[in-house]
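TA notes, week 10

Several of you asked for a full example with nothing omitted. So below is the full record: structure tokens for the whole chain, then the designed sequence directly under it. When grading your own attempts, check the secondary structure regions first.
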């Protein structure tokens, strides 16, 4: 990322990949209940009439968290966490850890990187990360959308993370594990471009104008800006992605059909379902992740010094 203390050694690509994957896991553990609430709000009202949608079970971010905690137990707020951590180890490692490397590759080592190059680098690492980590995302979403009431414990869609991978592959084929991959590539390329590039540009501007030093307040401010931009830009695609990945075989003819079904049955506002949950989760995840990422990088570099 832009800026750094001159006294610091430049972290290698391996250090950045390790730091990004670890920081992504820290951020997921910290913010997972918000992500679960977001998924529940996004799939709520699926394939129902407008009148049924108006009598929604979940209302608001914290109302959803409280409802899940009361009716299903607090542990279910972390449903799919194992798949989420597996996802971050693959996903964040690539999309964030390799961003600087890809940026230098596209700029041919130039110190002055334009906005277009940053966007291209962010889009590339986002797409590569999804191509590898898509099965973990499918399983995570399925678990988070799965309502597990105590009286219906035997009706669980999947009994474990491993069972989910096996069941999806058996019932839907290997393609089922990559369900919604193109849509997710689109979504995460947008996420990477808005999140990483915004963070990169804001941090660079702060340091260039000497508003702050390269420390936690600077990382916090840049991460907050990145989270806000990302939520506004990607919410519609994120809702369609969640719906499509959670759907049973044959429910939708494709991602476009899923979007059209939402539009017809639930109206345009459906594309911003769970917006506040998405915003709170994205901003808090960004702050925890980027602050952790910067600190882990520096700790590893200090450890490597003779």
């Amino acid at each position: 990322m832009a800026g750094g203390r001159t006294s610091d050694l430049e972290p290698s690509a391996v250090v950045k990949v390790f730091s990004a994957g670890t920081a992504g896991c820290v951020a997921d553990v910290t913010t997972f209940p918000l992500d679960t609430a977001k998924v529940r709000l996004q799939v709520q009202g699926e394939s129902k009439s407008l009148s049924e949608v108006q009598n929604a079970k979940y209302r608001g971010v914290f109302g959803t968290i409280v409802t899940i905690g009361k009716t299903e137990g607090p542990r279910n707020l972390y449903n799919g966490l194992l798949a989420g951590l597996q996802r971050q180890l693959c996903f964040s490692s690539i999309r964030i850890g390799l961003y600087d490397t890809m940026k230098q590759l596209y700029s041919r080592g130039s110190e002055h990187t334009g906005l277009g190059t940053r966007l291209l680098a962010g889009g590339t690492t986002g797409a590569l990360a999804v191509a590898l980590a898509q099965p973990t995302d499918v399983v995570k979403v399925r678990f988070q959308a799965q309502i597990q009431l105590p009286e219906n414990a035997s009706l669980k869609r999947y009994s474990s993370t491993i069972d989910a991978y096996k069941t999806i592959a058996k019932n839907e084929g290997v393609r089922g594990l990559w369900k919604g991959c193109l849509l997710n590539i689109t979504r995460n390329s947008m996420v990477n471009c808005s999140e990483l590039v915004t963070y990169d540009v804001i941090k660079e501007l702060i340091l260039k104008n000497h508003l702050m030093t390269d420390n936690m307040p600077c990382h916090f401010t840049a991460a907050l800006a990145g989270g806000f931009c990302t939520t506004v830009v990607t919410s519609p695609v994120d809702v369609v992605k969640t719906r499509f990945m959670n759907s049973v075989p044959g429910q939708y003819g494709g991602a476009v059909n899923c979007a059209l079904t939402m539009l017809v049955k639930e109206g345009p506002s459906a594309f911003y379902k769970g917006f506040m949950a998405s915003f709170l989760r994205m901003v808090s995840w960004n702050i925890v992740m980027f602050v952790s990422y910067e600190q882990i990088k520096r700790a590893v570099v200090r450890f490597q010094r003779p």
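The mean pLDDT is 86. Use that as a sanity check on your answer.
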